[in-house]
Structures are given as C-alpha cells and as structure tokens.
Amino acid sequence: MPVVIVTDSSSRLPAPLAERYGVLTVPLHVTMPDGTEYLEGVDPIPDDVVATQGVTTSGANKQELTTVYRTAIEQSQGDGVVAVHLSRRLSSTWANARMAAEEIGDELRVVDSRSVGAGVGLTVLAAAQAAGDGDDRDAVYEAAIRAAATGESLMALQTLENLRHSGRIGAASHLFASALSIKPILHIADGVLQLKERQRTMTKAVKRMVDTAVEEAGTDPVTIAVQHCQAPELAADVHRTLRTQVPRVTSSMIVDLGAVLGAHVGKGAVGVTLGRGLEPLDQ
Fold first, then answer.
1. Is the domain of 79 the same as that of 36?
2. 241 — alpha (psi -120 to 50), left (phi > 0) or beta?
3. pLDDT for 169
4. What is the CATH number of the domain that holds 181?
C-alpha cells in the first residue's frame, strides 16, 4: 500500500479528490455563542455562522488526531503516514499533531503547510501524488514541504469585522484603528495572514488580486484553486478570468472556505491559491 495522507478540514479538499487519493480528514471545531459545537465536514452547520458574533473555532485535539492517524497507519500496511495541517501559527492543530506523532513514532511525519484553506489542500495533493507514484514516507514528506514552500495565496475581503473579532491577523492589525470600509488584499506570509495592499472597493480589490496572481504565475505550469465564502458567482468570475489570463494552467478548481475559515474572513471573501509541481487533477 502507498503512504497514506491525513489532513484537517481546513484543507477544503473536494470529496472526489480526497476519495481518489485516499486522503483521511480530521474535522475542526466550530462553537456557537450558546455553546453548541459542530464538527466541520461531519455536522450540518448553519450558513449564518459566518455572520454570527461570538462564534469561535478550534483545532483538532490530540485524541481526535491520534485516532485518525492510527487508522491511516493500519491502512498503509507498514508504509506509514504523512499528515499535512494548517499553519501552526493559525491553529493548535499542528501542535497537537506533533504530540500525537511523539506518541506514535516514526511511522508518522507531520507537515506544517504554513498556509490555510486551498494552500493546505494543494500541499495535501502534492503529497498524495508522490505517494501514488510509490515514493516512501520521507520522500512524500519532502514533496509536501516543497509544495508548501512554493505555494502562493491571496485573498480579498468584503469586510474586516470577522478578522477584527477573531484576531487571526498579523501585521495588518493596525487596519482596525483606521477605516473599516477598506477592502484589503491579504496573503499568507511566514504562516500568518498579512496585509499585502488595500483598495477602496471590492471590485478594485478583486481585480488587483487577480492581476497579482497572473503576475506571480508567470509562464510556469500552475494549479489554480479559487476559494470563497458564500460568494460562488464572484468565485466563478475570478476562475474564468484566471483560466483566460494565466498561460499554463495544469488544473483548476473552485472550493468553498467552509464554516471554520469563513468565520474568520467573513461572507463575500474570495481568494486565489497557486500551486506548482502538481500533476493534472481529475475530479
């Protein structure tokens, strides 16, 4: 059996791809102000969770991770497991994964994707493709590390309110002392969300984000993931534009950010992630 890949629900990996590559997913947690808790990808979560003040999110705990890791190890029949999780600077999941790995031993390698959302997902797919090619556990781990290092993610936000409440923002925290009406373009840098630039309207922010993604893609073959929070039409427009303007698109997809990430970026957010070195994806 090939090396088995494990991730968490922040990866937003489409079900057909997870099934095709045999990826196992550990759910993250969403807790409502009244204490009701949901497991992302397991429980039906109300759409209005992203607009509800007081909603909190939390990572997968050690016990949850260990249970899935042991299932994956059994499935691998001795080839081992590589776990790819969202940035350690944005969630407790990676730290809990490391504690689980200390208990489990050498059969498990844990990767900090240094990203979130589709950035995690494309790193997962890079690892899964290496595993499918017959690479051993260490080589699959290295493939994931390379994908994490070369991926690029941008996101335009309709509102800053969610980030203001969640605190999941790095160098852009000073924005909250200025006009909340600005439309920021964020990127992932050093494992955290940081301000790349700002625009006065969402239309201008999305256009600038797309232009930047096209520039960063250059003439390299890239995999494109467009992600959004309850903005499917905007995401479809961004996807069409990128498919037209990026010269060499290996594969592309549109994914919803889900409840956990949506609670932090707010309704209307749209983002672009570029991945390099991936084989074409068949969904």
1. yes
2. alpha
3. 58
4. 3.30.1180.10
Q: Give the pLDDT confidence of 158-186 residue by residue, as tens digits.
A: 887 777 666 555 545 555 445 556 888 99
Structurally, how many domains does the chain consist of?
2
**282 found inside a domain:** no
SS3 content of the chain, % helix, strand, coil (to 5): 45, 25, 35
d(CA 249, CA 148): 19
Mark whether 100 and 168 lie in a shared domain: no
Mind listing the pLDDT tens digit for each residue in 136-163? 999 999 999 999 999 999 999 988 777 7
Where residue 51 falls among pLDDT bands split at 50, 70, 90? confident
Q: What's the DSSP call for residue 200?
A: S
What values do phi and psi take at 52, rounded to 5?
Answer: -95, 120
DSSP state for residue 6 in the 8-state scheme: E
User: Which token pair is 271?
Assistant: 């983002």
Instruction: Identify whether residues 189 and 143 lie together within a single domain.
Output: no
Chain center to CA of 48: 21
- Residue ranges making up the domain that contains 176: 152-276
Give the pLDDT confidence of 92-114 residue by residue, as tens digits: 999 999 999 999 999 999 999 99
Position 58 confidence tier, pLDDT thresholds 50, 70, 90:
very high
Closest CA to 260 of 81, 107, 91, 57: 57
Token readout for 282 is: 């068949």
First to last CA, the chain: 22
Closest CA to 68 of 119, 118, 27: 27
